[in-house]
């Protein structure tokens, strides 16, 4: 199902992703961060559904379907470097900032910052070309909403 997308992601110079593939790739990145601490909780999956529904104006039935596709894609996806490079090429900076904010939401969903999740998020932000300041501001926005 995702063979063509994965093939494009693993090319040395991947072409820009079509909108549907960019959605799947971004959703898979949310799943990758949620799974990074070895505890992919139901609350994280539900949060990913809410993020996807809000970001892409999806129905309560479409968001879990996209997440399920993303879970499969994430498990088959290449290393994070190639994965994020393809996303970076397909998505403008402002949208990537929004992705970082969504990723921080997932990292902070359980009320604490796990070292593995935080480290992966810092790597992802860097690979997506989002600078440290903008990533920190995204984290602060998420933390202020949770307070």
UniProtKB/TrEMBL annotation:
Pfam families to which the protein is assigned, alphabetical: TerB (PF05099)
Superkingdom of the organism of origin: Bacteria
Domain Co-chaperone DjlA N-terminal, chain residue ranges per copy: 24-140
InterPro entries reported in the protein's UniProt record: DjlA_N, TerB-like
Region (Disordered): 1-21
Name this protein carries in UniProt: TerB family tellurite resistance protein
Organism of provenance: Psychromarinibacter sediminicola
Taxonomic lineage of the native organism: Bacteria, Pseudomonadati, Pseudomonadota, Alphaproteobacteria, Rhodobacterales
């Amino acid at each position: 199902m995702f063979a063509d997308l994965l093939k494009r992601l693993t090319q040395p110079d991947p072409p820009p992703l079509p909108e549907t593939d960019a959605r799947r790739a971004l959703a898979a990145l949310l799943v990758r961060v949620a799974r990074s601490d070895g505890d992919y909780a139901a609350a994280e999956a539900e949060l990913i559904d809410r993020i996807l529904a809000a970001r892409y104006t999806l129905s309560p039935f479409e968001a879990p379907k996209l997440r399920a596709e993303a879970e499969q894609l994430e498990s088959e996806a290449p290393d994070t470097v190639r994965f994020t490079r393809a996303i970076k090429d397909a998505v403008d900076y402002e949208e990537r900032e929004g992705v970082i904010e969504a990723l921080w939401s997932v990292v902070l969903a359980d009320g604490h910052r796990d070292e593995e999740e935080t480290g992966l998020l810092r790597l992802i932000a860097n690979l997506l070309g989002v600078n440290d300041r903008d990533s920190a501001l995204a984290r602060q926005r998420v933390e202020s909403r949770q307070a």
